[in-house]
Design brief:
two-stranded antiparallel ribbon; about 90 residues; 2 helices; single chain; alpha+beta
């Protein structure tokens, strides 16, 4: 139960980071500026979210292939170091 709570908390934090980074990227006028804004947001804020080690985040902020008037911010997180894996038996 504890392991699930920690994992769920980390997943929720990553979702919130992605949403906040996307909102920040809206201010960019082109893909390069949006990437810079996302990188800056992550560097300054990602470490403040529960269960998140900012050094384990990777991101992409690119114009949408399907619709050039939109952009996509994607966040990935390496959860190997979450303190849950040793809670499972065997």
């Amino acid at each position: 139960m504890v392991a699930y709570g920690i994992y769920f908390g980390a997943a929720n934090s990553i979702q919130q980071i992605a949403a906040d980074a996307a909102r920040t990227a809206i201010a960019g006028v082109n893909q390069t500026e949006r990437q810079t804004l996302v990188a800056s947001y992550l560097a300054n804020n990602a470490g403040g979210y529960p269960f998140v080690d900012a050094s384990k985040l990777t991101y992409q902020a690119n114009d949408s292939v399907a619709d050039g008037s939109q952009f996509v911010v994607s966040i990935s997180y390496d959860a190997h170091n979450l303190p849950i894996w040793n809670l499972f038996p065997g």
